[in-house]
Amino acid sequence: MFDPLALAVALPLLGALLVTMLPGWSRALGMLTALATTVVALWLTVTVWGGASLHSDLGGWGVPLGIALRADGLAAALVAMANLVALAISINATGYFGTAESSRKFWPLWLLLWSALNGLFLAADLFNLYVMLELLGLSAAALGALTGTREAAEANLRYLLVGLLGSMTYLLGVALLYTAYGTLDLEQVAASLTPGPVALSALALMVGGLLLKAALFPLHFWLPPAHANAPAPVSAALSALVVKAAIYLVLRLWLDLFDGIVTEAAGMLLGLLGAGAVLWGSWRALRAERLKLLAAYSTVAQVGYLFMFLPLLTATPDGPERERLLTALVLLALTHGFAKAGFFLAAGLVQKSTGHDRIRELGGAAQSLPAATFTLGLAGVALIGLPPSGTFFAKWVLVGQAIALGQWWWALVVMAGTLLAAAYVFRVLARAFNREPTPKCFLTDPRTEIPALLLAALSALGVGLAAQPIAVLLGAGD
Amino acid sequence: MSGLLLAVVLVPLLLAPLVVHPAWRWLVLIAPLPALASLALLPPDATLELPWLLLGTALGLDETTWVFLLFTTLVWSLAAVPVVERLGTAAGTGRFRLLFLLALAGNLWLILAREPVGFYVGFAIMGLAAYGLILHPGGLMRRRAGRVYLAMTLIGELALFVALLLMAQTQGVTWSLPATSAPDGTVIALLLLGLGIKAGLMPLHPWLPLAYGAAPAPAAAVLSGAMSKVALLGWLRLLPLGQVALPEWGMLFVWLGLVSLLVALGVGLVQTDPRRVLAYSSISKAGLFVLLLGLLLLEPTLTPIGVGALTLYAAHHALVKSGLFLGLGLRDLDPARPLVRAGLILLALALAGAPLTSGALAKSVAKPVLVSPGWIWLDLALMLATVATMLLMARFVWLIWPAPGVDDGHRGALPMLRTSNDTQAPVGSQPAFPIWSLAAWILLLGLVAGFPFVLGEPSAWPTNAGAMLIAGLIAAPLALAIWRRAPGSGRRVRRRSLGDLVVLIEPILAAQLWTGRALFGRWNATVEAARAHLYSLGERVGSPPPDPERTLRAWPTAGWLWLGVTVLLLLLVLVAP
Amino acid sequence: MKASRLQTVLIPLLLSAIGAVLFWAFWSGVTGHEGERLAALALARVPESGASNPVTSVLLNFRAYDTLMELAVLLAALLGIWSLGPAAAPYQPAALLLNSLVSWVVPMLIIAGGYLLWIGGQAPGGAFQAGALLGAAGVTLALSGRPNAGLPDESWLRVLAALGTLVFVLIGLTLMFLGLGFLTYPPALAKALILTIETGATLSIGATLAAAFLGGQPRATRTAEP
Amino acid sequence: MNLDPYLPLAIVLSSALPGALIFFLGEDSYRLRTALNLFGALLKIILVGWMIWGVFHGHVYESRLTLMPGLELVLSADALSVLFVALSTVLWLVTTIYAIGYLEHSPNRSRFFGFFSLCVSATVGIALSGNLMTFVVFYEILTLATYPLVAHRGTPDADHGAKVYLAYTMSGGVLLFVGAVWLQTLVGQLTFTQGGLLGAAPEALHGQFILIFFLLLAGLGVKAALVPLHGWLPQAMVAPAPVSALLHAVAVVKAGAFGIVRLVYDVYGVEFADDLGLLTVLGVLAATTIIYGSLKALSQDGLKKRLAYSTVSQVSYIALGASVLGPIATIGGLVHLVHQGIMKITLFFCAGNYAETLGVHKVSEMNGIGRRMPWTTLAFTVGALGMIGIPPVAGFITKWYLGLGAATAGAYWVIVVLLVSSLLNAAYFLPILYRAWFRPPPDQWPEEAVLSKRLETAPALLWPPVVTALLAVVAGLLAAAPFSPLEWATLIAEREYGR
Amino acid sequence: MSHEILITQLLYGGAGLLFFLLGVWSFISHEPLWRKLIALNIMGAGVFHVLVAVAYRGLDAPPDPVPHALVLTGIVVAVSATALALAFGRRLDREDSERTPEVQGVDDREDGTHV
């Protein structure tokens, strides 16, 4: 009777519509929808964790004609992370967007973005993915511009244009696939896909378009200004979820759709770009003047890490190693999602209470906001990849498989990345140790700090140690 | 009953912290009592096994240790009386008493120890504690003596440590003394070095005259009497006497002993300070012991007699030497007292080995060993040594005999108990003459006097008569001449006396230290400069360059980059396998 | 910033390479494919979909989810425009000729829109085309000087804009709660449901397009902007 | 329901959870924070005691958490880990009491004690780790937990010292990480087994094993302050006294040394490592560190700086013990793990007392300090004598066993190194004792603070050094007693060589 | 698949691809915002041409409805995206006009700076 997949998309959409119509009640309705959606998402993940993957045909017309929603292990894990982070962001937003004016603008767009996210993770139809990408791009760009400054408008316009270019290219790829194989469903295309010019060009177009939206190294130019100038909860969503959705799509295409077509050399190209992203992103983060710019560049670096898994995945034949690599990839994605969201929320609080987030003058604030600094620390642990964070175990598996396959250079990149990450995180944390008077109590603004703290704690401690259930989830999924 | 052995060591250790408080200082006297009790009550071969202490300690007695324990305890208890009475409540004396008892405990542990670790523990504690005794009232000269003493003791200790290690290599972690297997060359060399420093053998002796000259009377007495004999005990324990003949090592020992015997006497004669004279006589006696050991190594069959002779000689020397030092202590308080002067003369005679004295007895017992190789030159040398010792003692008597009317010029420099130049010594009135220490001293005199008659049979008494005669013939006219021409001229004090090897070493050491520091300093400077440069690099890097991403952000560049990536993707999927 | 010489050469070169591959791919895609794509399957099942026009049945029945999300995209765009700032200044009031023209054209557009909405079920037409016409009506009104293009004030406008999607979602959810499955129309009611969804959609699309043309936060009151 | 699998985990958490709670306490909830601290310490001691009793009777304790197939976090208690756990637990209790006294009125105490407990739980984690991965996990958590302690004071040079510390330990951690992963790909799951597990690997891999050994040694060498990598230790002396006591006597430095012991005995196996010629390399490195550390210590005027360099040289004794083939040298190395901890922590406590009570930071200011603070200086003397290796104190036992082990193994150059280092130790410790006891005190101390009426300084500051000094003497005197560190080290060495 | 349908599909689809490429070229190399938006719409039109071309099933047979529906949805999405982008452009213009009132920029570049 209850179809969690459809509910997961319809509920936030319904919420968005209600909030648009009744702006006065925006905060209450928003929170209600947030809670309901998270419950549905977690229920969905638990059902997938228990048995096999979920599948539901919308409109009851069967796959080639109608649209299907599917939730396998990978999708369920990402949905769970996305919804938890979104819930935390929503709680934070009730505090951040205090005024009626700003919350009226924020909540409808935010819930639309949320439903686009769930829709994208659960979609199994290529064209539907295009529509979800567009909805995601539009609402993210609109949300990003809420700060109202000129830089925000300019950055988000560039983001919107990049998004449109990317999704238009993606759509052409879908058109080609439809021309050749006459169906739009992911699984059916994957089944009937044969190496040839169509598959080749569709791969190039679709993945090329998505690389733009996933901000892989040379194409990351739009991300830092967009994420740094957005309001704190929005930049948390952008960095942790929106970029993650594009990467999830690349993965879905690379591992499922184009599994037979993909060659190791192509994987190597993406891996090298990823390595470039790690080094360039970390180096720029180290040199960044402002805290949120640092966080944005750290996202560019973490995206690099995710793409470094691709060459290894393509080179490893099916078997336990590939299973471990996939689990490690998901672990890294989840940890980064939680950590970056926590980091941005804390950075937002620091900016709000001191009026600026220039790292050099951060001293006083870092000392007087112990909870915020503690969150930055925990999130930093996850970003650097210190144990017990998921990133540590993910890097362990990544380097292990790299050495096993003889591609030892990935290990060097991981080493350099970890050191640079440590440098730029501790550059911020060092500010917290100065001679300011000791704050009386730990929490200064609970509504912002508790969700941020929980997110960061989950990233630093929770996900890493919960690797076993995640492995089961992924195993059960496919 | 064998628990008493542990008490011997434990009581002084436990009393040590208590005696720091001036009111409790009389406890120092009680410390040696358990040792005396064990001597009286315990059978000569009592042993005590303590597997849990240190690495499994074993304490025990046998013939030699019995004798050693006897005279050591006597010396310590007699020296304890002046410590308690005369040192009194001056500042720093608490610390002196603490270290005095620690040294006592170390000494007793060492004598009773039946395994190397215990032996080394006693040796180390005694060595370090003695440093504090030498340093007692402070002052520049004592500090220098202390520093030299400490340096050489540490080297000695480490040499002994390594020797024990190498011996342990063959016999497992711990084994019972005396050593059963024959140690190889390096071990013997190390033992010679380690214990030689303690005994004050010639090339290793520089610290001894300084220390005896600087230390207060009871400390000097204990140092010369009990502590230096430890080296002999060590040699007896660790060298393979009686098991195997080591001709070349034996000859080395003999020659070293001889050199030390004669040269020390020569240098001693030119000394102007009575304490240094006694110091050099101790060095010569150490040479004699090494000579005897060498002979035993040459002729293992002589070991029983040899060991007996050595132990007796050690006992005699301990008692006499400590008596002399204590006497000097008393004399410094009241130079004119006739009883003290008579006693000192008696002790001097005994030390010189005049007939009817304990010296003569010891020499007679040692005679058979000395004669055994039958080398003529050895007998001649020994005869010369005996004569020289007589002369040395005469010199000593001459030095302590105050010339009429001339105030004893060099008293100021002597480490008197009430020297004025030391800031913290109380400048109070002259303390009452310490009766009790005088009584103890007299008791010691009685012991020394009775020694030959109790132990030796009458035949031994007249030995050395001939040598005594010759010495008297040489000394008498010399003394008369000096006395008439320039009374008291022989007594001037020269600070840098001839025998001090330290005088030579110290500048070399200082030079070495200086060059090392300079070299090291420069190296340090370069390292610091490099590090500073590195960190400034870090700061300079910190400043942000113009935003490199501006060009990246312009659409054309971003555009062709994106197209490039897509084309590369196409090619790699198309071309690559 | 004048693109450097390298880029003017490089970009076309790369594009022509991609173009070549695309043409080759398209050629092989089209020729290679022997069977009918989804045409036969879709056309076969149009009768049960509750609309005779195949495109409408695909749009509002087979791939109804897509259309729902598409309306959400439209709404998102509108909300984005509103969040970027106040609306532009209205045009200066139209002269007599334009006014009379408008008074004729706007009702015509509205009737045509209604017709398109109705005919959508059988022939090409439907919610989007009708909405477009309504939007055009709004635009002409705005061009003729009316400050908010015939649209209600902000609170009602927000309801109107969200109405279409709301109707769609509510129908979907009720169907799911009734056990049929999200957006699965019972064959009997299909036609009626499609019609209601279409009318809702037309209204909100028209309102959205018109409001989007105004380009900003609708003015709360009808103050005449200088 | 046997509790065995949960004991090691409980021990690690028994200090982590109170620590986590302390973070959230306000600055002024003094009583609750002290209660939490002491409760954590006592609970841990009880648990450790229970475990020692169990291990002694051959009981197996193991908590296992499998993250992925082939990737497990294992906490197991074998003889070697129990030795280190016992040491760190006891010394943590003492240091906590000292820290409470020391940081009486200083700011940020919640933050300090939070990280302080995390640091110890990391150390205990390192001790109890059952395989190389868990070791690396806790090794890097230790880096994380100790950084805030070093930067605690907030002064510019504390910040600089912390930065240097972080640079060194992070790069070391990364090297260790890559080495461990490389080894794991070659050999599979790396559980620590008595006698090492690389012996059976095929011949071809030996080249890689040597390379990996150097990587791991570099990673561990940073924390064990082997020569080229020791730069951070003197710089980290800026930290408050309890931190430098716990870090440089127990936690950080010992973690590195413990790691090297684990690497040589339980990963490579000592015979296998010897065949590869790795032990001689380790030995040479350790020897150079010993000599270099002592030489540098000679020229340092700052008391804590001198102690820091002395730590640099002392810790390498453990590496030296591990590098000499033969059970006796191993015993020497292992027992020094405990002895050095006890003696060095005493010295640092005394240094802290001098700084806190009299404001004395330099050796040149220590004239006659024995008269003003007799008990502290007595403890300092015991510690110093122990460092030199003078018998009654524990240091002698180590020197005796190391020397003996070297002699039996025929590595005579080791004895020379021991000799030279003992002399150098004497050269830089005895002048301090001489100044303290035999020089007259100055008329006015730099910053004299009256911390207690009856005693020479606050009780919480005075008793810890005295207790640890007593421990050092007892460990020396009762070395052969059943539950002494020496007995335990012999037990470990027998099991290592026994099979 | 008769030859005639094939030819029309190829011809029409090829034109669509050409549109797409032209659109991309223009999007990348031209600076002003409105030129980029027009380029985007051309690219969209190109893709929709391909889809419609593929839907062609000969003169008599009704065309394949699915691509048509896709095109309809695609058009609406393209419209809303263009509307939002234009709103962004207007916002940047208004921002600049407040700062430099006298210059009424006509064709300002996408990041709002003037030619």
UniProtKB/TrEMBL annotation, chain A:
The chain crosses the membrane at residues 6-25, 32-54, 74-94, 106-123, 129-147, 159-178, 198-222, 234-255, 261-281, 293-313, 325-350, 371-388, 408-429, 450-476. The keyword Zinc does not apply. Residues 123-419 form the NADH:quinone oxidoreductase/Mrp antiporter transmembrane domain. InterPro entries: CPA3_Na-H_Antiporter_D, ND/Mrp_TM. GO terms for cellular component: plasma membrane. Its main location: membrane. It is found in: Cell membrane; Membrane. Coiled coil: none annotated. Signal peptide: none annotated. It comes from the Bacteria. Keywords: Cell membrane, Membrane, Transmembrane, Transmembrane helix. It is a multi-pass membrane protein. PANTHER family: NA(+)_H(+) ANTIPORTER SUBUNIT D1 (PTHR42703:SF1), NADH DEHYDROGENASE (PTHR42703). Belongs to the CPA3 antiporters (TC 2.A.63) subunit D family. This is Oxidoreductase.
From TrEMBL, chain C:
Pfam families: MnhB. Keywords: Cell membrane, Membrane, Transmembrane, Transmembrane helix. Its main location: membrane. Residues 98-191 form the Na+/H+ antiporter MnhB subunit-related protein domain. The keyword Transmembrane helix applies. InterPro entries: CPA3_antiporter_subunitB, MnhB. The chain crosses the membrane at residues 68-89, 101-120, 126-144, 156-180, 192-214. It comes from the Bacteria. One of its GO terms (cellular component) is plasma membrane. It is a multi-pass membrane protein. The keyword Transferase does not apply. It is found in: Cell membrane. Belongs to the CPA3 antiporters (TC 2.A.63) subunit B family. This is Sodium:proton antiporter.
From TrEMBL, chain D:
It is found in: Cell membrane; Membrane. It comes from the Bacteria. The chain crosses the membrane at residues 6-26, 38-59, 79-100, 112-139, 165-188, 209-233, 245-264, 276-295, 315-338, 375-398, 410-430, 461-481. It is a multi-pass membrane protein. GO terms for cellular component: plasma membrane. InterPro entries: CPA3_Na-H_Antiporter_D, ND/Mrp_TM, Proton_antipo_N. Residues 72-113 form the NADH-Ubiquinone oxidoreductase (complex I) chain 5 N-terminal domain. Keywords: Cell membrane, Membrane, Transmembrane, Transmembrane helix. Residues 129-424 form the NADH:quinone oxidoreductase/Mrp antiporter transmembrane domain. Its main location: membrane. Belongs to the CPA3 antiporters (TC 2.A.63) subunit D family. This is Monovalent cation/H+ antiporter subunit D family protein. It comes from Allochromatium palmeri.
TrEMBL record, chain E:
It is a multi-pass membrane protein. Keywords: Cell membrane, Membrane, Transmembrane, Transmembrane helix. It is found in: Cell membrane. The chain crosses the membrane at residues 6-25, 37-56, 68-89. Residues 93-115 are annotated as: Disordered. It holds the Pfam family Oxidored_q2. GO terms for cellular component: plasma membrane. Belongs to the CPA3 antiporters (TC 2.A.63) subunit C family. This is Na+/H+ antiporter subunit C. It comes from Allochromatium palmeri.
